[in-house]
Amino acid sequence: MSAPLELFRRLTSGLFVITATHGGRSGGFTAAWVSQVSFDPLLVILSVHPGHATWPLMEQSRRFAINVLKTGQHDLARHFGTSSGRDVEKFSTIRITPAGGPIVLADAAAWLDCRLERQHGAGDHIVVIARVAGGQVLDPDATPMQYAETGDMDGSAGLFPLDW
């Protein structure tokens, strides 16, 4: 039987930057566990570690954006995925686009404006179900980045059990 890490690395998923604002604060983090779950209404699901500095902003505002990264945007993925908003102002060097709501990354392939509807504890993460209220394709020719492109940038390989 294969090791859990080897199996889970073969589950395909995109790479996204989740952004939220509340009370004059802003935050963002990378996420790979994002998926559409319904057509009517349009719903998405994502998994959030409750320790992320952005989680309280999402929970309090009940609104966030899913920014779809493009293939090759490793620096942007690293920027949002390997530092905490408690230690650094993540948007000080990033081009953003005013969207009248959550922060939108100007260099993203696309973005979705989401309203948090439900949340459920799931192991060491929180599963969020959100209604998609709008969004925009910013680069119609872009290929969305895949999580596998990042290798072990986030250090997640060490989180998997070695065996069953």
Q: Helix segment count?
A: 3
> What is the element string, with H for helices and E for strands?
HEEEEHEHEEEE
Instruction: Give the strand content.
Output: 35-45%
What's the domain count? Answer: 1
CATH 2nd-level architecture = Roll
Can you characterise this structure?
The chain has a single domain, classed as Pnp Oxidase, Chain A (Roll). It is built from 3 helices and 9 strands. A hairpin with a 6-residue loop joins strand 6 and strand 7. The termini are close together.
List the helices and strands and how they pair.
Elements: H1 4-8, E1 16-22, E2 25-31, E3 34-38, E4 43-48, H2 55-61, E5 63-68, H3 74-81, E6 96-97, E7 104-105, E8 110-122, E9 125-137
Antiparallel strand pairs: 1-2, 1-5, 3-4, 4-9, 5-8, 6-7, 8-9
